[in-house]
Automatic annotation (TrEMBL):
Keyword vocabulary terms for this entry: ATP-binding, Cytoplasm, Ligase, Nucleotide-binding, Purine biosynthesis
The enzyme's E.C. designation: 6.3.3.1
Biological pathway: Purine metabolism; IMP biosynthesis via de novo pathway; 5-amino-1-(5-phospho-D-ribosyl)imidazole from N(2)-formyl-N(1)-(5-phospho-D-ribosyl)glycinamide: step 2/2
Protein name: Phosphoribosylformylglycinamidine cyclo-ligase
Residue ranges annotated for the PurM-like N-terminal domain, each copy included: 64-174
Naturally occurring in which organism (per UniProt): Nocardioides jiangsuensis
InterPro entries: PurM-like_C_dom, PurM-like_C_sf, PurM-like_N, PurM-like_N_sf, PurM_cligase
Length: 370
């Protein structure tokens, strides 16, 4: 069909892409608005800018490695995006995406190199898309990786006009000789806890069910225990540990690390524990932030279920040689990450109160929790 015929058809009420709910113009406007943020999240190895079919990264930078291992991770934010949509506040959700991605890489000692994102929405609102990308780019700067590309897809009919979801993938590199993991863990290692910034980006289905649906609390409700509104607490961005943990891996005898996400502390720590050893973690060494106790009390959530769903105040842990513990904690706190020794590693036969069939045992009670 000629351009003139297409114009005549549209004028006569014929079908167009925009009439179907997809605006090319809005998409182009969103790209223009996000460019300023993407430009801030660059590394020297990144070639070109956004707008191409693929992001380019100069892999010759890996020549300095004797045996470079590439690490990759893919993830999303989950139902926390529903809170951002309800509050019409979109510039922090990118930190949740980046945190879920890069901190899965650093547990093996890998440095995040670049990240790509994917935003699906029912209707492209350029300013909203740019706000999401702003958060992603700012978080990439914190993590030290490049935002090398991405995709924004408009899906009318599949998603509501103001609904969206975000996901992404990231790639990093680690020298094979420096790879962290279960094979390095030894009896006598201590478990160092790194404080979370709050809920991070896991368990929001439980949190929303308890506080919003069952209790009927509004997001603008002032909650004295939290010292702010419920919505402000629920949108607290995920802490990004990447640079701190890489510093830890390079400058202490840290043997393994675990990112505490879905499944909670015990399940995620088990992923980096050898079968012949057990890590005993003492709950008495820390008090989780008030939001965790709030969910527990308001929803009458059993502690076991709470600990399998939420991070309960610990967003990352390391398994570090005991005589390096003080140096590790000082290093982490130099990055603004509060840290403390919360447990130790021992042989299964020597572990006190070890749970049968598991390599992590949680003991004691959090101070102030009845």
């Amino acid at each position: 069909m000629s351009d003139q015929a297409e114009t005549a058809s549209a004028a006569a009420g014929g079908s167009t892409y925009e009439a179907a709910g997809v605006s090319i113009e809005a998409g182009d406007r969103a790209v223009e608005l996000m460019k300023v943020w993407v430009d801030k999240a660059r590394r020297p190895e990144m070639i070109g800018g956004i707008g191409g079919f693929a992001g380019l990264f100069d892999a010759s930078a890996l020549k300095s490695y004797k045996r470079p291992l590439l690490a990759s991770s893919a993830d999303g934010v989950g139902t926390k995006v529903a809170v951002a949509q309800a509050m019409d506040r979109h510039h922090t959700i990118g930190f949740d995406l980046v945190g879920m991605l890069v901190d899965d890489l650093v547990v093996c000692g890998a440095e995040p190199l670049f990240l790509t994102d994917y935003i699906a929405t029912g209707r492209v609102v350029p300013e909203r898309i740019a706000a999401i990308v702003q958060g992603i780019a700012e978080a990439c700067v914190q993590a030290g990786c490049a935002l090398i590309g991405g995709e924004t897809a408009e899906h009318p009919g599949l998603l509501g006009p103001d609904e969206y979801d975000v996901a992404g993938s990231t790639t990093g590199v680690v020298e094979a000789a420096d790879l962290l993991g279960p094979g390095r863990v030894r009896p006598g290692d201590v478990v160092i806890a790194m404080q979370s910034s709050g809920l991070h980006s896991n368990g929001y289905s439980l949190v929303r069910h308890v506080l919003l649906n069952t209790a009927g609390w509004a997001l603008d409700r002032d909650v004295p225990e939290l010292g702010r509104t419920l919505g402000d607490e629920l949108l607290e961005p995920t802490r990004i540990y990447a640079k701190a943990c890489l510093d830890l891996a390079r400058n202490t005898r840290t043997h393994a690390m675990s990112h505490i996400t879905g499944g909670g502390l015990a399940a995620n720590l088990e992923r980096v524990m050898p079968e012949e050893l057990v890590a005993t973690v003492d709950r008495g060494t820390w008090t989780p932030q008030p939001v965790f106790d709030l969910v527990r009390r308001v929803g009458s959530v059993p502690q076991d279920d709470l600990e399998k769903t939420l991070n309960c105040g610990v967003g990352m842990v390391s398994l570090t040689a005991a005589d390096d513990a003080d140096r590790a904690i000082s290093l982490l706190e130099g990055h603004g990450v509060r840290a403390w020794v919360c447990g130790e590693v021992s042989a299964v036969s020597d572990a006190l109160e070890a749970q049968a069939g598991g390599t992590v045992s949680l003991v004691g009670r959090h101070p102030g929790w009845a």
